Amino acid sequence: MRLELEDLRVPLAAFDLSLSTTLEARVAAVCGPSGAGKTTLLEAIAGLRRCTGAVRLDGEPFQDARARLAPAARRLGYVPQEGALFPHLDVRRNLFYGAARAHDVDSTAAHVIAVLELDPLLDRAVDALSGGERQRVALGRALLSGPRLLLLDEPLANLDPPLRERIRGHLLRIRDELGVPMLYVTHDARDVAHLADTVLRLERGRLVEQGDPQQLLEPDPGALRFRGDRPGSRGDRLRPA
Amino acid sequence: MSALGVVGFTLLCAALAVGVMLPGGLLVAWALARRQWPGKSAVETLVSLPLVMPPVATGLLLLRLLGRRGWLGRPLEELGLPIAFTWRAVVVAMAVMALPLFVRSARVAFEGVPRRLEQVARTLGASPWRAWWTITLPLARRGLVSGVLLAFARALGEFGATILVAGNIPGRTTTLATAIYTHEQLGEDAAAFRLVAAGVALAFAAVWGSEWLLRARRAEGSRAGGGA
Amino acid sequence: MNRTRGPLVPGAAAGGRRATSRRLAARALGCALALAALATPALRAAEITVFAAASLTNVLQGLAPAYEAKSGNHLVFDFGASSTLERQIEEGAPADVFFSADEAKMDRLAKAHLLVDGTQRKVLSNTLVIVVARDSALRIAGPLDLASRGVKVLALAEPHSVPAGIYAREYLTKAGLWRQVIDKVVPTEDVRAALAAVESGSADAAIVYRSDAATSQRVRVAFEVPPAEGPAISYPIAVLRGSKVADAARGYVDFLAGASARDAFRRARFIVPE
């Protein structure tokens, strides 16, 4: 993907989210302390938050001075932190909710369902799913709508380590086998290290760093700390294994 | 008109009134739940007025509006569609008095649907209408039906506005409430109390049903939110 | 991929559901239209709507079968305080004939051009009586006794709007008693309600028409106002402009001026002018 943000600005409570940048990556990770505006950034790109400035994906403007594309028209997949499955629909109907706009649903569907191992879940009710299962269904639902870009908000946050490992594997397969670009918010160093080609760091609504994870991150995988952070500074702490 | 006839007429008018009120009520409740705009509090107040004003005051305003010499009433009468002192006035009075109750319940029902779900639906390609129809409405359904029942019960019991704008014309605009009043005025206690019993039974059923639905929704809500 | 568990894409099921909900919507619409049609009053040949003073309730209802049999028309009555009925007619209530208990109300309609010219008539008169409960121990020999301590609550039809109340007030004023009784007065919606108040014991006495007292077994007349001393009571009748059955309505008015109707009025203790 090639994502351009020009003077993107969203007024928030304590400060404004404000950034300009261009991203070219298969997977871009967004990090930063809580409250930095990471979720807001995803919402703004998805068109769910009013913002000023310009947003372009692969050259196509989502928003600029002249016009603003509705969320439905942006062909994005959005997986919020809580998964947000539709509780009154079963897994199958959740998965296929957005399928109407995808090209070639049947073969894609089969592939996605295989990659995310969703087959045994298809006829279950949403409230009968475990946390990990919900995440997979939420991912599948976003993928089945044929998105050009996946926006993920801490997809692995509430899962325990073995599950996280598994789903990270799924994300890798999404990146490699399905070829869908992702922009996702994470606190986990391993996500950044294994998945992302580019990492962005947000602090108080500003983009403070952007670049290759290998160069920006401390080699120690035990902490998500950036070179240039002072020793003992408040970098993102890795969750205990 | 027999007691059964009065009860039947009242039920019919109340049902029609709720039907007439529903589309506008849903729209207003939705706008109040999800949108902000300058003058929103004025709309909130306006919608709540029939709830807090004396019903006869509302009735008088309606009479001025819909009577033969009224602003709306005169053109309608010339078109051959008189409103005041016909069954149509009963329906209008009931609808106006029931609207605020419905809007309150419906607004709460809509607010209870997590916005995230609507947002996700939009990102999946749903138009605002489709998101509302397939996600919001089903999830708000219990609260909405409860609101409808409450509005229906209110319409059934409406007296003050009805008696002014529809009169109490036997066989034409006499409702349960106005019939009770007339019987009482004429000292016909037995007839009055028969109708009172019918009124109590109907109101009880409507409100009980409304509460039951809300209880079920609360249980549903806590189950769905509980899973990790 | 195991496809034995139903369609992978739930399009078929969803399509079925959509069709069902469309059918439901159509059925609901049909029901709503049917309800609306039912609620519209059925159209019968010459249905005459008569707005009449409450004091005429029994006598007009008694005369109705004879008229309906003779004319083939159907009568629909709305009895109430003439003041209320007059207001409703002004605001567009669907009446064909107005039978009022005083001239003032009829004049107002005439001034508002709501009467059909030439159909107005004076039909009846009446006289006032003071009634008490049948088993009441009160001794009322004349209006003066209304001021006594024994009468704590005096029921009158609303003394400033309803004809019966206006007549009563005029009478008491002429007798110099109005100020003395004014604190005991409970105004009622119409004259029959005043009668009912005495029947139920809510009021010690009431001033109603002689014809009203005749309808009730539970009251007795304590004092009858001689017509010469009382106010001039007049019951006019007229056909209303905008009536869709004006000819039939005229026929009904003529019927009420006829011999059999006059007999019925006399029997009901009205005063029928010769």
Explain what you see.
The complex is a heterotrimer of chains A (241), B (228) and C (274). By secondary structure, chain A is of the alpha/beta class. Chain A has seven helices and twelve strands. In chain A, a hairpin with a 4-residue loop joins strand 1 and strand 2. The two termini of chain A are 32 Å apart. In chain A, 46% of the residues are buried. The C terminus of chain A is likely disordered. The mean pLDDT of chain B is 89. Chain B is an all-alpha fold. In chain C, strands 2-1-3-10-4 form a five-stranded mixed beta sheet. Chain C has a five-stranded mixed beta sheet with strand order 7-6-8-5-9, sandwiched between helices. In chain C, helix 3 runs parallel beside helix 4. Chains A and B meet through strand 6 and helix 4 of A and helix 6, helix 7 and helix 10 of B.
Topology summary:
The complex is a heterotrimer of chains A (241), B (228) and C (274).
Chain A: E1 2-11, E2 16-24, E3 27-31, H1 38-46, E4 52-57, E5 60-63, E6 76-79, H2 91-95, H3 105-115, H4 131-143, E7 149-153, H5 161-178, E8 182-185, H6 189-195, E9 198-203, E10 206-211, H7 213-216, E11 223-224, E12 236-237
Chain B: H1 3-34, H2 40-52, H3 55-66, H4 73-78, H5 87-111, H6 115-123, H7 128-157, H8 160-165, H9 176-185, H10 189-226
Chain C: H1 11-39, E1 47-53, H2 57-71, E2 74-80, H3 82-90, E3 97-99, H4 103-111, E4 121-124, E5 128-133, E6 154-157, H5 163-174, H6 178-181, E7 185-188, H7 191-200, E8 205-209, H8 210-213, E9 219-224, E10 235-239, H9 246-257, H10 259-267
Parallel strand pairs in C: 1-2, 1-3, 6-7, 6-8
Antiparallel strand pairs in C: 3-10, 4-10, 5-8, 5-9
What fraction of residues of chain A sit in β-strands?
25-35%
> Which percent band covers the strand fraction of chain B?
under 5%
Q: Averaging pLDDT over every residue of chain A, what do you get?
A: 84
What overall form of chain A do the CA principal axes indicate? globular
Number of helices of chain B: 10
Could you list the spans of chain B in which at least 5 consecutive residues all have pLDDT below 50? none
What structural class is derived from the secondary structure elements of chain B? mainly alpha
